[in-house]
Write a structure and sequence with these properties.
This protein has 438 residues and is an alpha/beta fold. Helices cover 57% and strands 7% of the residues. The structure holds adenosine-5'-triphosphate (ATP) and magnesium ion.
Length: 438
């Protein structure tokens, strides 16, 4: 209701009361009564005319907004509040709390109520106003624009740039991202779908990138609006299972609480269950996990990780857990070429590089190492590259009077690679170095 209308109503009420009082006072003198009635009717007429004028003015402004709204829908890229490439009307920050016209920035502020500088009462927002505007069924949205809005392109670029190989894993991540992306767009058209279950299991040998990918996954799910926070809590058996009665439930609940809004990554999850020990408290932790994975799946994602064969056994003993895992992703062991590429990438990150001979040496070294049972794929490469930096530094430092140039400070040579154990490093100052160099 405008100020004018409010004033008209107020004066109307006042006049009705005045008329009532006069009527009672001058009941026996009609000559007073008739002019009074005329005055009241005249005032009513003026107030009514003002209210009518104000109503007409508001209708005109409303019409302007509707026309503008239509124009915006037809020209999405020119409008300030639209997404690139998509005919989407986006409510922005502060404006979202204002009247429907101001909400979309369609009407200049000067014609909005309160633009005169007079403080206005904040219009009450109905439930409907709080919901984002649905798109018209004929509107179109490109998924490229949606990806850009969710900021996932840079994440995929980083995945490709930083992680060598892992083609099936990256494909699976892209599939999950597509599902969530399409869901986002569907919601904009009012096509609500049940939230997909995204609990996962990552299997693979040590050092194949499970933890690294889980971190990226948490970030991705956050960017796509699936997770509120997007952090990752790393847990192992000891973080969840106690040794005495009454310890397990609070421990597990504490970890789950910390994980809410993000990813709970349970490494070597099969250690939670000890088939040989029926008194073990692991089952208690599993039962709580199962409950939360079902009831709070809109609040957290659980990723179980470990060796494939052990994980299979774990699922056989815990079918409830198997049924709650929607995505099984296997991380294959890296091939020699991939391991060398990983090593090169790691060195490049720290502004080092392998000389041609050093790369050949690294290949030989890795071929040997890959046969060892304790070989841990990319982690072993990382460790070796760190040792190579140590040896390189020590090689330079032992020749105190030699002048080293920029390239010398960056180049890793075969002798920095081949000595694979730290014992030979400790001896490098003297005999070991002479033996290798010779
Ligand atoms: N494809 C890859 N490209 C580059 N670096 C990698 C790749 N995979 C793993 N790494 C690196 O190797 C190291 C070990 O990776 P990560 O910890 O993710 O392996 P994991 O599978 O979790 O191992 P584990 O099973 O032993 O916990 C990390 O430093 C990671 O950055
Ligand atoms: Mg790990």
């Amino acid at each position: 209701m405008s100020d004018l209308q409010r004033n008209a109503v107020k004066s109307g009420i006042f006049l009705i009361i005045a008329a009532g009082v006069s009527l009672l006072t001058f009941l026996d003198q009609p000559e007073f009564f008739i002019p009074l009635i005329l005055i009241i009717a005249f005032i009513f007429l003026i107030a009514g005319a003002q209210a009518m004028e104000s109503w007409r003015q508001r209708r005109k402004e409303g019409g302007k907004a509707t026309t503008a709204q239509r124009r915006r829908a037809a020209e999405p890229k020119k409008s300030s509040g639209t997404r690139k490439g998509a005919s989407v009307v986006v409510p922005t920050g502060q404006e979202a709390g204002e009247s429907p016209a101001g909400f979309y920035g369609l009407v200049p502020r000067s014609v909005l109520p309160g633009a005169s500088g007079k403080p206005t009462k904040r219009p009450r927002r109905s439930r409907k106003d709080k919901r984002p505007e649905l798109l018209h069924p004929d509107a179109t949205v490109t998924l490229a624009a949606e990806r850009q809005e969710a900021n996932v392109d840079e994440l995929f670029e980083a995945l490709d740039r930083e992680l060598v190989g892992l083609v099936p894993v990256k494909r699976k991540i892209a599939e999950i991202a597509s599902l969530l992306l399409v869901d986002r767009v569907r919601q904009k058209f009012g096509l609500e779908a049940p939230r997909p279950n995204l609990h996962m299991c990552f299997t693979g040998a040590p050092g194949t990138g499970k933890t690294t990918v889980a971190l990226r996954m948490a970030d991705l799910l956050h960017r796509l609006g699936y997770l509120k926070e997007g952090h990752m809590v790393h847990a192992m058996r000891n973080d969840l299972v106690g040794q005495y009665i009454g310890q397990t439930a609070p421990r597990t609940r504490r970890v789950l609480e910390r994980s809410m809004g993000g990813v709970l990554f349970i490494d070597e999850a099969y250690y939670l269950y000890r088939a040989a020990d029926p008194q073990d408290f692991g089952q208690e932790a599993i039962d709580i996990l199962l409950q939360v994975m079902e009831n709070d799946r809109d609040k957290l994602v659980v990723i179980l990780a470990g060796y494939k064969d052990r994980m299979e056994k774990f699922f056989d003993s815990n079918p409830g857990m198997r049924s709650r895992i929607a995505h099984h992703i296997d991380f294959a062991a890296y091939e020699l070429n991939e391991l060398v590429a990983i090593g090169r990438g790691m060195l490049q990150e720290s502004r080092y590089y392998l000389s041609e001979e050093a790369e050949t040496t690294l290949r030989e070294y890795l071929t040997q190492q890959m046969r060892q049972p304790e070989f841990a794929n990319a982690r072993s490469v990382r460790n070796e590259m760190e040792r190579a930096r140590l040896r390189h530094a020590h090689r330079l430092a032992t020749d105190l009077h030699h002048g080293w140039n920029r390239d010398d400070l960056m180049r890793i040579e075969p002798m920095d690679i081949w000595a694979s154990d730290m014992l030979s490093l400790s001896a490098m100052g003297g005999t070991a170095r002479q033996r290798r160099d010779g």
